[in-house]
Fold this protein.
Amino acid sequence: MSRGKASTMDGDLEDVFGNAVAELYEAAVGPDASPALARALELRSFLALTEEQVARVRDRVHADMDPDRDMGELSADKLRFDAQWLEAALDARDGYRAALRELLRTMPAPDQRARPVRTAQLRVTAALPPSAAPAPQRAGAARARRP
């Protein structure tokens, strides 16, 4: 996972989970780690990696377009390839941001997550009176003929 690299949604994660990202990664490997935290950090790792790809392509294009660079070194094919790569990386980044935003939006509030779910087992305390209606015949049972 991309723990060391920052992502644009780190602040949102810290706000929702109440800890720094590094602490969240440590909590995610603990025995009481929530599945939502694990998913959020997985999406965050993908996002950080994708944002790094976007930055690399951007920096490469900027270096290629440097005004001090020899114009003879420019390649339309290379720039087209970088544009396609950048478009793919931006699409992936947008998808990861949307998925992470949706996960954080749909999570229960922190005070609701802390409580264990308890279910009550219902018990029968009184016997029901026998039914006055006749019991239904079994499916497929033949009826006795009356003379």
Summary: The CA atoms of residues 24 and 37 lie 8 Å apart. The two ends are 83 Å apart (CA to CA). Confidence is low (pLDDT under 50) at residues 114-119.
